[in-house]
Each structure stands twice: as structure tokens, then as C-alpha cells.
Amino acid sequence: MQIERLEKVFLAIGVAFLTFALIAIAASVFMSNIHLPRPEARVNPRELASTEPFNNPGFHELEPGKWEAAITAFRFGFGGFPSVEVDGQRVSQIEVPAGTEITFHATSLDVIHGIMIEGTDINTMVIPGEVSKFRFTFNEPGTYLVICHEYCGTQHHVMYARIVVTEAGAVAA
Amino acid sequence: MSSIAATPESGSFARTDAALDQVGILRWHLYLSFISLAIGGLVGALQALERLGYNLYSEAGLDNYYRGLTVHGVTLAIAFTFTFGNTFLSLTTRRALDRPLQSTGLLALSMLLSLAGIVLASYAILSGTADVLFTFYAPLQAGPLFYIGAVCLVISTWVTLVNQLITLAAWRKDNPGERIPLLAFASITTYLMWFIASLGIAVEVLAFLLPGSLGLLDKVDPQFTRILFWFSGHAIVYFWLLPAYVSWYLIFPKQLGGKLYSDGLVRFVFVLFLIFSIPTGLHHQYTDPGIPIQWKTIHLFMTFIIFFPSLITAFTLMSAIETAGRAKGGKGLFGWIRVLPWHDPVISGQLLAMLVFMLGGATGLINASYTLNKVVHNTAYIPGHFHLTVGTAVALTVMAVSYWLVPYLTGRALFAPGMAKIQPWLYAIGVLIFSFGQIQGGLRWMPRRTAIDDAPYLLDSWHIWNVLTGIGGLVMTVSGVLFFIVIAGTIFAGAPAERGEVPMAETVIGPKQSAAIFDRLSFWVVVAVVLVLFAYGPVIIQYLPWNGVTPFTDPI
Lengths: 173, 556
Hints:
The complex is a heterodimer of chains A (about 170) and B (about 550).
Chain A: H1 5-30, E1 58-63, E2 66-74, E3 77-79, E4 83-86, E5 89-97, E6 100-108, E7 113-117, E8 123-126, E9 132-138, E10 142-147, E11 160-166
Parallel strand pairs in A: 2-6, 5-11
Antiparallel strand pairs in A: 1-2, 2-3, 4-5, 6-9, 7-8, 7-10, 10-11
Chain B: H1 17-51, H2 65-97, H3 104-126, H4 144-174, H5 182-213, E1 219-220, H6 222-250, H7 252-256, E2 260-262, H8 263-276, H9 293-327, H10 335-338, H11 345-368, H12 373-376, H13 381-410, H14 417-442, H15 463-493, E3 507-509, H16 521-541, E4 550-551
Helix pairs in contact in B: 1-2, 1-3, 1-15, 2-3, 2-4, 2-5, 2-6, 3-4, 4-5, 5-6, 5-8, 5-16, 6-13, 8-9, 8-16, 9-11, 11-13, 11-14, 13-14, 13-15, 14-15
């Protein structure tokens, strides 16, 4: 097989670029500590009421600045978020002070859902039978949308929640 | 326009009655492709309008955005692409082997299966029993006709492969010891790859989803069926893409007045696609909780390997195009670009498709980049990416190819060539605006596959990106309308013209110098299967014995 020299140069550059990309990916994992979801537990969606941690749904402060949340996604909302009235509407919303680290465990009651949290690196599928574990430290005050990003039925677009991060030391409304 | 002008028939097989009957069947199969493209494109227009705040779904007879999206995905990503592949790569096989396809009956069967599939799936979707989108993830459940329709479309591709293989076998008997003509080699390896790849969704649908839909199965394991889907789901993009590569490598250079440099390199590229397309699927499941990290990592490496043949393609095609340009008298660093026949839509459409594909490939590499996937997964970035790839590299190439293929199959000259001339430019401009809007929205956490205009969480900051998406989509729609005026006009009112021959590119360095081992297709199929077993075996085994986890759900 005869290949022109120019082609060999081009392909060498291509391979070098791909190698560089792989190294950058490795750096993101080992140096920036960014991780993909991994198997956490298998659960029975019919028995969540007696399965840790979903037997204790919702947000719990373990110690100041460290919370955990057990979330059950369903058509069409995120169970575990308190239902709060905002401007005359009911919204699934939790309020935490800035600097809070939340460790989430999520699963689905029914179909495949997804969770993506605005302003964070949280992006995971939420699948019946599987537990998704993810964690984030909310340092910046603001409102973070929690969006279901996997089609789960004809009301998929109403499925969302909010995490409101208040200034450290502010009084909760 | 040179590529449409008739070249006198060389007195080859193509004049026989048998061969002309086959042309008739191929023509109807191509019409199915156009019908699918038209329906899918019209729904695309509805989606573009939705981005701009105009919800016309009920007027269009579609109950909701997601039903429309299911039509859009199924007609374009399954029906349009499969029927075009079946038509085009059957035609290229017989052209390269210089004989009619071995079975006119199988050719007709493939076309009828496509028709049945399109009718059944469309009926199921439009009657409200299949709001499940093109990915039909369990436990969302569609009615049985939807799955049966999809099965018919997949089997139409298997029948096409069988016809290619028996034609090749007959050719080999008559031509012992000869290298498989390159155009046939590429066409057949494409279908071999897809056959192996399609086994994932075949098992998913036949063992789980269809029985569930018929009430024979109560529960399903959604993580597992998702793995089966994406087993096929990444390789399917190469099934969409490779027919475009066949045109770019093996027909387009001839139409440009150039040659391909190395026969062996093209064989190498298609063999790489045969063996590496499938063991990459887990990169669509980077954010799935149920899949171990080590397997996500292995598929990351496999995915980077499969990027390599597209890099080779970029160089090989650019060098063939530059050679042709310089042969036309183009001088200097960029003169060869200027003298290319940009006025010929067969050429301009494919050149624009190649250019846009560079962005498509780059965004694809980003999606595949493991941790970077967390930035883009399930955001609008993803459709931004794939409208550049299947939406342009493939669809725009199909349109450009149609400008010579329809005259060839109908024996009529192209209607409204002036419209044809501007159509590809309009399309490229439209899709670039569309994808830019989607990509920017996606990077700001706007989700995909969502009736965003009705979302209570719709952010004001997303508005400009949705407007760009809508405008881009409408420009693409106008381009599509022009395309269909030209094509319908040609079919119904084109002036009779001599048919000519399917163009076939020559190589500077011919088949004699390329490694003979490439032609041992059964060996490469075995390699492909071994790689699949390695990349998927351990992942699938952990789900056995199979255990249903959750019941099926109606999407409504």
C-alpha cells in the first residue's frame, strides 16, 4: 500500500491531536476531579419505601454545610423537593445557604428521566432500577434550575425543580 | 451542467430488460425516501415555528410536540436514510460489478418492506399510539404496529444485503481471483457493518418491546434495553454516513474530473468502519448510572479510533479535489478552490456537505470526550451537532446526488436547474444558523427533545438562541421546498434525456497494489464480531439472568 508522504504527515498530526485530547480528558478526571456516574446500587422501583435512602426522601442536613438528598423522579416531577408557593404558583424548590455541599441519590419510580442542574457539572440519567449518585458544592448564590432532560412523556416539559442558594448567613424566607 | 449531461451507454448490462425492471424498482424505493424526507422536513418546519412561539401542531393534525418529534425522527433517521441506502448502495453494487442484481424479487421485496414499514409506523404514530420518539426507550411503550413497522424497515436493509452478497457471489464465480471492484466493496461492507449493528435493536424489539406491546411481557429492565438500543444506535450513524462517503469517495471525484489516489486506502477505511463502528456505543451512555466506568473508558478509546477513518477521508477527499482543481487550471494556494464547478449543484451540494461535516465531526468528538459529555448530554447541543452530520453531511449529499440520480432513474432532464443551483447554499446557510442557535442554547442548559415554548422554566436568556434555531430551520425548510419542486418537476415534467451511466471514480494507484486481505470479507466480519463480543459481552452478561424491573408505561 503506497501512501503519499503528505498523507502520513496529516495522519500523524491527526493521531497526535487525538492523543492530546485523550490526555486532556485524563487530566479532567484525575486533576479536576470530574467524574462520570457509575453503578451505585440496583433497587426495585416498587419497594422504594423500604429501600435506603429512599425510605427517607427529601433533603436532610447532616451537619452545617453538608446535606444529603434522596430524590425520586416520576412523571412529572422530582419527589423529595419541598413544594413551595412562589408568586402564586407551586414550585418544587429547596433553599440552602451558599457553601452547601449536597450529595444526591436519585432513582425513578416509573420511566427513564434525567437530571441536569444549571450552573453545575451535574448531568445524569435517572433510570428505574438504578441509583444515580452525584454531589455538588453550591458556592455561588442564585437560583439553579433542576431540569429533567430525558423525554418521559407528553408533560416532560413541566418536569423541573429549583435549588435556591442564599447568601451565606442570610435568613431563609 | 457536466454531471447531468448524458454519457452514451457503453453497451453494458444496463440495457437489458432485467436491468431496466430493476431501475423501475429502485426508482420507487427512492421515491419512498423522498416522501419520508418531505414528511420529516415538514414537521421540522413546525418545530422551527414552535421555537419562534407559533404552535401549529393541532392544525397539522399532531396532538403534541412529541408526536411531531416522533414523526420527524422516525421518518428522517430511519425511513429516509434506510430507503436511500437500500436504493443507492444496490445501484452502486450492480454498477461496480457490471451486472444486474442477482434477484429482482429480493429487490422488490426490500422496497415493499420499506413501504410496509413506513405505512405501519406512520399509522401507529399518527393514531396516537407511539409518542415515544425515535429512540423508543422502555418502559415507554408504543403500540405493536410501531414496532412492526420499525422491524419491516430494518429487514428491508437485511434483504438488500442478501441481494448484494448473492450478486457478489455470482460475480466471484465469473471473475475468479479478481479484486472486488472498489465501489461494490464499499457498498457491501457498509451493509455488512449495519447488519451486525442492527442485531442490538432487533433483540431489543423482538425479545422485549414487541412482546411487551402485545401483552406477553409484564416488566422490562430499562437500563438493559437502553444498552441494546445504543449497541445499534452509534453504528447507525455510520449506516447513515457511509452512503454519503461512497458518493464522496467513488462517484464525486469522477464528476469533478479527478481521480482518487489510492484504492487500498479506501478499502482500509471501509474495513475500519466495518470492525470499529459498533464497539463504541457506550459513549451514548456516559451518564447512565448502571454502566461500569471501565467499560465507559474502553468505549471512549474505541470511539477515538473510529474517528480515525474520517480523518483519512478528509485528507483523501481534499487531495482528490485539489488535484481536480489544479487540473482545471487553478493556480496558487487557493486558486484550485475557485475553479471548482460551484455552479453545479451536484458538486456544490457535496462540497458544502463536506465543509459543514467538519463542524459536525468536531462537535461529535466533543460529545464523545467522556467528561465533556456532562456539559452537553441531552442539551440542545446534541441536535445542534447531528443536524450538521446526518442533517447535512448525509441529507445535503442525498439532495446533491438526487440531481443526477433522478435523471438517471427516470430518463428525464433536471427541471428548474436554476432553483437546484441555489438550493444547497440555502440549506447550508440555514443549518449553520440552526445549529449555532441550538449549540449556544445547549451550552446554557437548554434541554433537547422538549416542548421548550411550553416549559414553565423557559429562561429569557434562551430566547435569542431559540429565535436563531427557528430562523435557521425555516431557511432549511425553504431550501427543502426548492429541492422538492426540482425533483417533482423532473419526475413529472422533465424533458426526456439520455440516461447515461452511473459515474465511477478511478484510482491512481489501483487495486493490484492494495493488500489482498481486505477482500476477505468473512475474515473481517469475524473480527467485527470478536470486537463486539469484547466491547459488549461483559456489559451484557452482568444483566443475565434477565430480570424485569419495571412495568411498561403509556407515554401520554
